[in-house]
Structure prediction request, 320 residues.
Amino acid sequence: MDVTTRARRAAGRLKHALAARIAEPEAAAHASVGEDAPPRFYGLTRFSVYSPDSGSWKLTRDQGGSYAEQLYAAERMGPRADIFLELAAPILQVMADKHDYRHFVHYSSVMPDPWQSRLRETARRYPVLRLVDAEKVSAVRVMMRRDLIETGAPDRTVVLFRIDDDDILAASYLDKLSAYAVPGDRGRAVSLCRGAGAIYLDGRIGPLRDQQRVFGAQGQAYVGSWRAADKTLTMTIGRNHTKVARMMPTIADAREVAWLQLRHPAQDMLRDQSDAVAQVQEALAKLAALPPEFDLAADFPTVVSRIDPALAPPAPGDNS
Prediction:
């Protein structure tokens, strides 16, 4: 099957899924089932939040130009807007149509157009996205508790996860995470630590590689609880995803691909922008290809039409 046919089928599958949204009756949303109602999932993405005092990324330590100019430069924002708004958001909506799920998007009011207008338009198109001005509400616990109160949520398991604005969760991510969204796993973290990796370059994506990142940031989740009677949200959130297992019991599940990490030259973490593509391809060349049974169109339907075999990382020893 050629790439064009695969892309057409993937697009059709995604369109059908979005059109056939599963609407949970309002009564069911407020009804208890046994001990608890079904779990509620919350996602969090920081969409280029203005935070000049942060020491987390290379960007905040650069000296050339102002922080805001660097943060919202077209060469930096272009890939993020394409990845999050065009590739990730439709998949998040498909997940929301199957599960009780909201996705908070932290943004800054100082973000200029066209980026802010594109973000708002995407949120209108995909209501799973809940835009939150980071200057007004910065604590995710506040956002979660407010939503639980406003929706009259009964006692239930509550799960929080995060995803960066240049990574993509698999359409089956919440299906996998649901196995651990149960009362017995409250107080634990979950690392769905198998994913895919690929290069992103000018809108194209290289063939996906198989990778495992135990305690990686991609989709790491925390399981807690909501008690409606006294409006208590109980949840431990790891401050450092790489050391989460030192804070709480942590489940690691690497059986199936749960996310896609896209590497591109505009990423803040790269040590030298001048050879960014070479850095990315060198790292990807060390990873194995995904097994033949992996269904790209099922888990990443928006990605299929972007795959470019010419972006495959060179084989070891190939200096061409």
Q: What stands out?
A: Residues 21-34 have pLDDT under 50 and may be disordered. DSSP finds nine helices and 14 strands in the chain.
